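REVIEWER CHECKLIST
Item 1: Sequence provided? yes
Item 2: Single chain? yes
Item 3: Sequence as submitted:
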Amino acid sequence: MAEELLLGDGTGGLTTLLRRAAALDADASARWQAVGEGALDVFVTTPFDCLAARRVRGRAARDGAAVRAKTLLDAMEATGALAPAEPGEPVRLEVGPASDASWPGALPPAGGFTERDTIPVGVASRLADEGRALARQFSGPAGPPRSLLDSTVITADTESGDPVDIPMRMVFACTSLGLIPGFEASAGVPRHLRVSTRGRWVRLDAPFGSVYRNSGLGLLF
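Item 4: Structure as written out by the authors:
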């Protein structure tokens, strides 16, 4: 049975996220979550044990449904929703089949995160460049070594009694999915990342999307 979505503003950014997620992993999943009145956060899985998300205007017939990222992208292409929708002209999609069982655990909380620190975008970009150089040097058939992905590259909110460790895998997710602006981005695009936490969840808000990671036992908890 197909899932039904009504999408409005924000489909351009969502398209970019879905394309990049599917390029990283052909079996990447997408899942949506209602946030407030008339808005959805659309999450995608990544090979980095992190989730990434973009927010769009829209509604879903069934909140929390999951589909393949490529399936959602194909449905957007078939209905002309790849370009940003005009204000007041949402696009209705039928996306299917659902694949809820393929989703790796719970979604992050829809709210209640506390902002802990800000990080210049240039710092994350430099770390990602250095990480990619190391990955090329030491990667095996399974990709970058886990020790590199798990290494803490940023420690945020250091003056508190509970600093936040940002592993390389979260930085890789930001850069690989195009969430950090390049030099060509307009001057109005923010040039910093926000670090927020709620419980074991760590959220890294970039100018073009967010990355989430459960700092406990992985995405299943």
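Item 5: Key structural point noted by reviewer: The chain has five helices and twelve strands.
Item 6: Recommendation: ____
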